[in-house]
Each structure stands twice: as structure tokens, then as C-alpha cells.
Design a protein that fits this description.
The chain is of the alpha+beta class. The protein contains seven helices and seven strands, in the order αααβαααβαβββββ. A hairpin with a 2-residue loop joins strand 6 and strand 7. The longest helix is centred in the N-terminal third of the chain and has 28 residues. About 8% of the residues have low confidence.
Amino acid sequence: MNLRLIALSLLVASATATTNVACKKDSASETPEPVAEAAPEAAPEPESEAAAPTPEPAPEAAPAPAAKDLIGVVGGLEKGKTFAELLVVAELDKELVSPEVNLTVLVPSDEAFAKLPKGTLDKWKKNKEQLQKALKYHFIPGVNDTAKIGNFRTAPTAAGPELPIVQSQDSEMTIDGAKLLEVNLAASNGMVHVIDKVLQPGAKKK
């Protein structure tokens, strides 16, 4: 009787042990299901702001045109074609383009040259020295507008003789008897005035 009880107890104990081991194995072998991680929230996109209009650059001021030199101003005169031509013949045009020159040039009009005695221009053109002297009588040293010239009684010339300056009460000015037709034409190296008479050194006044 005791043997049966002992054998039955061993069987029960063996079965219980086997069940516990199986339970432990089942528990260890169970892999916990991974917890689904919440997807990271997308960074909020910046609010689209209306693009500020880009200010247009201010237009650059056009550079002021450079002033012409004396020969450029004289050459551009409608009434000074003859004088400009004589400057080239006398080879004084090269002198009047120099930036180191500071002259006031009195330019006789084409009509003034037309009033000269017949053959005068041809005579001058054949004698460069005489032509240069005749032209230089129209050169006054320095840059002189009419306001400055009006302060003097005479004006020296590159040819030597001085020119008498007369200003009337109504502000009409003459230089050696020549009336001013166009005045204060600025050049980069001087000043130009157009006159109605060809100035001739030593010529007898009529």
C-alpha cells in the first residue's frame, strides 16, 4: 500500500515538474511584440509669405559729356567754318587741343572773312607765318567770359598787340571794334566768342 502511494506521489511530482518547465519555456520563448513607435511629426512648413517686391535699382545718372576742347568748339560753329579751316592750314589746330592751353578765342564769322579785300585769304595761306600772326591776334591768354572781359579796357593777344575793349551803357561790348555775336562758349581748355569782324594787327581803321 505504501509503495503505491509512493509511486503515485512520484508520478504526480514528475508531471508537475514537467508542466512547470514547459510553462517557463513558453514564457521565455514569447517575444514581446514591439510597441509601434509614433511616427515623428513632420516639421511644420513655414507659412508662405508673399514675396516682398525687390526694389528696382535707381537708374544711374548718365555721365555728363566731357567738354570739347577749343578746336572742337570752333569746329562745331555754324558761322566759324573759315576760321576752323585757317587754323588747320596754319597748323594751330594741334595747339588748341592741348589740355595745357588756356585761351580765349575770338572767332570771326564766315561773313566777316567774306568782307576782307579780295585775295587776302589766299595771301595768308601762302605765308604760314603771316597767317599764324593774323590768327593769334584772335587769341587772348586765359579763360575769359564776357563778364571778365568787361572789367578791362584792353586785352592782350598771343600776337602781341592789345585789343581795346569798349562797353556801352546798354552793356553792348566791342573788342577792337568787333561786336560779339555768340558768347561764352565753354571749352575744356578755354572759352570761345564769335565776332563780326576779322581783327588785323596794324590795319588802318576806316
